[in-house]
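Q: Protein A?
A:
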Amino acid sequence: MYKKITGYFLALLLLASCKNESKKEGADTWRTKKIALENAVQNQLLEVEKNQGWELLFDGESLDGWHLYNDPDADSVWEVVDGELHSNANDESLVPGDLVTDQPYENYELTLEWKIAGNGNSGIFINVQELPDVPTAWQSGPEYQILGADHMDYDLPEKRPGCLYVFQPQKSKVEVRQGQWNRTRIKQMDGKVEFYLNGVLTGEEDFNSPEWKNQIAETHFSKYPEFGKTTAGKIALQYWYFETWFRNIKIREL
């Protein structure tokens, strides 16, 4: 009798386990389909945007127009997943590094959306000079800061998300929508740059001004001869050992 009861309970446990696995597989499948459906309308230009001169910098399907900084043929951490540009921080066989545009830009407006791991650190470098003797993008390009809300630097004024990294605190306080898409806008015209995070102006600088040169001289960036010296260059997405996601990367030249 005991053996029969034990066998009956074991069968019930096995059946419950199979049902739970089936539910999990079903939930995972639905989640993947849901992401794909949501992203189906992303990375596209509206007719009005086309008429205004906007172009896609990311087509949602490939890394066309981008390459790993100073290593264009590398099997890099950057990949396209479900219509999103993703930095894969989990595969150590991949080559780490910043992703940079093939083409330089001078006067332009850039918009994009991003998400980041809670303790993640990333950024957008502008006016990047990709040279063999400049090993990283940050040694030439000023940075629009991207930071997760759980990062230890999140509340440091000059390292807040959306600020001109190290040089200025946010002009207007705005928080990251952790776990959600955040919107960045960068506008540069004749060396005058504006940074926006989620529709709020967070940074402003004139890269032609004596004040900018003085600011550089007061930081560790003064050790890098190419840093902040130009008002044209490539755009780079920073990889810093945490997962980040980008989509709807659009640009129009002014």
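Q: Protein B?
A:
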Amino acid sequence: MRTDDNVVDVTPRDQAHAESLKTVGWISYALHLIVAVAAVLPGAQPGIALLVVALVMDIVKRGDAAGTWQESHFSWRIRTVIWAAFWYLVTWPLWLALFLPGMLAWFIISIWFLYRIVKGMVRMNDSRSVEP
């Protein structure tokens, strides 16, 4: 068997780049999932810091995924966080005025958030875009 110093790497750069983006995506989805499950379970609040870390990761890496099926996942997670934050802020006065309606509204938002994260994870596992 002969060794050659001019051996070409058999893993294309694009494939390595795609795997790197997928790893970042899984880390982001895991952070989102921790926050989403904790939002649904009473008394389990890991903190908004995990969500902010995941959001910053997604914003920073979204450009690297441009033109790939993974681009939709970065946008999906960013939009999910922004819309959830918007609805939490809009329903905040319900907590101040009427506790039960506020709690119900936040529970519904949390379930919606969890649904979107799980849907994204299932699609990522299948190496498919989130949106058709």
